[in-house]
Automatic annotation (TrEMBL):
The keyword Iron-sulfur applies. One of its GO terms (molecular function) is catalytic activity. This is Kama family protein. PANTHER family: L-LYSINE 2,3-AMINOMUTASE AQ_1632-RELATED (PTHR30538:SF0), LYSINE 2,3-AMINOMUTASE-RELATED (PTHR30538). SUPFAM superfamilies: Radical SAM enzymes (SSF102114). Keywords: 4Fe-4S, Iron, Iron-sulfur, Metal-binding, Pyridoxal phosphate, S-adenosyl-L-methionine. Gene3D superfamilies: Aldolase class I. InterPro entries: Aldolase_TIM, Lys_aminomutase/Glu_NH3_mut, rSAM, rSAM_sf. Its cofactor is pyridoxal 5'-phosphate.
Length: 520
């Protein structure tokens, strides 16, 4: 179903189970059961602009609609972001799915698209026979060419395929070659670029910094607790592609199974190491933990006297936000309980999530974020800078503002890690430096993210602008990390490399083997 069809056709949905989120200031009766036709939107705009008593928030919404005609985005992105429309019904197989089912986490996990074969059939149903013309992809303008490109791309990819209904419903299938969400999650052979010669599978050397399997202890007072190696969706660019998800044709994973015995060993290490005050509960994705397992690990961490705070890392709010609103799923309730329990103990529990593009938001995301905010859960966001996804100033500004408006703190923007098989998504260091220069001052300082590089070799996160040297001919930048200690780390100079495609002549004249680690 195309965007024009969605804008004009009435859409089916069940009676909503949830109270409408009043901060959008739209009457549910006006919105329930149908997308707003463009003609009605035009009337609304006139009415709102001519009536000064209508709240500013509503005016913004109408302004957004007014911009639709000139916008490159399909109408439904704006509509589904602000209005309670059943945006998933634009997917053929979900045309009859109502709100009650879509908001059920059980339904979402049953309907996700996992593996090459299921993705193939999904794409076959959804794609138009012809793609819009684009000079960049002159060989993949038909559906069959696109399908072949994807199937061959999967064979080269380090990450397996898993996509959630929310993300599938947020991609513009009329233009999947350029869609910023499709680029993040669906590999294509035509965009594949050779790996950088300095790239390693575990580029951050997490395994080297693990005193117990699945527990990374790099910074003195902080550790990373890898509880599971599963996620509700797999990102092409995952830093932890050495361990996360199922094996692929190119990578056999060092799987970190969600096992009580392994968790006990990690918790024992934390309890016996008083210098650890801060724990990141991650994976994989903490969303893949059962609610009772989240409660058990969280309670144990809160009981350790020297653990002052922990964060629960999950992309779930971005890729499957309905779970937060599902009254039959306890994951969010357990997180809220842990957050409240932590406050009573004078400790702090937060959620760290991962949005990369404004199109990842819908009204479901907004209501889910509002539920967390209303219940006192601090939510911070860590974005990855990705070529063709969010590496332009308008998109990055839009993302930061969207996060801020949803009371999600824009915490980090990472330069893409040197990860196997995804060189097409990396940008040179100069891109993140330019973005920071342009964005700083455009929004309040406390809503301005830190633009960082997670240093290959295990130096941790450093501000991108803190580089010691940057040679644009070789793409090599260097950093120091004096607070990070450990084997071979004292006085070490850490290196980051721009992608080969961004170098003069694609880096052909650079002898990377001759560029060695330097100790200062
Ligand atoms: S959600 Fe996080 S851990 Fe999972 S694939 Fe994406 S980046 Fe990797």
């Amino acid at each position: 179903m195309g965007s024009a069809g969605l804008a004009q056709a009435p859409l089916r949905q069940d009676s909503p189970d949830f109270t409408y989120d009043s901060h959008n200031n739209i009457s549910p009766d006006d919105q329930r059961g149908s997308a707003v036709p463009v003609t009605k939107a035009t009337q609304d705009i006139k009415e709102v602009i001519s009536n000064p008593t209508i709240p500013r928030a509503a005016l913004n919404i109408q302004d957004e609609r007014q911009n639709l005609a000139a916008s490159v985005h399909p109408a439904y992105f704006r509509g589904s972001k602000f209005d309670r429309v059943p945006y998933w019904q634009r997917i053929h197989r979900w045309e009859d799915i109502g709100e009650r089912e879509f908001l059920s986490y059980r339904w979402n996990t049953a309907k996700d698209v996992q593996g090459k074969e299921k993705l193939y059939y999904f794409l076959k149903e959804e794609l138009p026979e012809k793609m819009p013309d684009t000079p960049e992809y002159e060989h993949t303008r038909t559906r069959d060419a696109f399908l072949e490109d994807v199937i061959r791309g999967i064979d080269l990819a380090p990450m397996s395929i898993r996509l959630t209904p929310h993300i599938l419903a947020s991609i513009n299938w009329n233009d999947p070659l350029n869609d910023p969400l499709s680029r993040q999650f669906i590999p294509k052979k035509s965009t594949f670029q050779p790996d950088h010669p300095k790239l390693e599978l575990d580029s951050l050397h997490e395994s080297d910094d693990s005193p117990v399997e699945g527990l990374v202890h790099r910074y003195t007072d902080k550790c990373l607790f890898l509880a599971s190696s599963h996620c509700p969706l797999y990102c092409r660019f995952c830093t932890r592609s050495y361990a996360v998800g199922a094996d692929t044709e190119t990578v056999t994973k060092a799987a970190l199974k969600p096992a009580r015995r392994r968790w006990e060993a990690m918790l024992d290490y934390i309890a016996a190491t008083p210098v650890i005050q801060d724990v990141v509960l991650s994976g994989g994705d903490s969303y893949s933990l059962m609610p009772q397992h989240l409660a058990i690990i969280g309670s144990r961490l809160l009981e350790i006297p020297h653990v002052r705070r922990f964060r629960v890392a999950t992309k779930g709010l971005c890729v499957s936000p309905s779970r937060t609103l599902d009254p039959n799923d306890d994951w969010t309730e357990e997180l809220i309980k842990l957050s409240k329990e932590a406050r009573l103990r004078g400790k702090h529990v937060a959620m760290h999530t991962h949005f990369n593009h404004p199109n990842e938001f819908s009204w479901v995301s907004r209501e889910a974020a509002q539920k967390l905010y209303a219940n006192g859960v601090t939510v911070r966001n860590q974005s990855v800078l990705l070529k063709g996804v969010n590496d332009d100033i308008d998109t990055m500004k839009g993302l930061i503002r969207e996060l801020a408006d949803n009371n999600i703190q824009p915490y980090y923007v990472y330069a893409g890690d040197l990860v196997k098989g995804v060189e097409d998504l990396r940008t040179p260091l100069s891109t993140i430096l330019d973005l920071e220069t342009q964005i700083r001052g455009s929004i309040a300082g406390f809503m301005t993210p830190q633009f960082v590089v997670d240093l290959p070799g295990g130096g941790g996160k450093r501000l991108a602008a803190s580089y010691k040297t940057y040679d644009r001919a070789t793409g090599r930048s260097t950093f120091v990390a004096p607070a990070v200690h450990g084997k071979n780390k004292e006085g070490r100079l850490y290196e980051y490399y721009d992608p080969l495609a961004s170098l003069p002549n694609g880096g052909e004249s650079v002898d990377f083997a001759a560029i060695e680690h330097i100790v200062i």
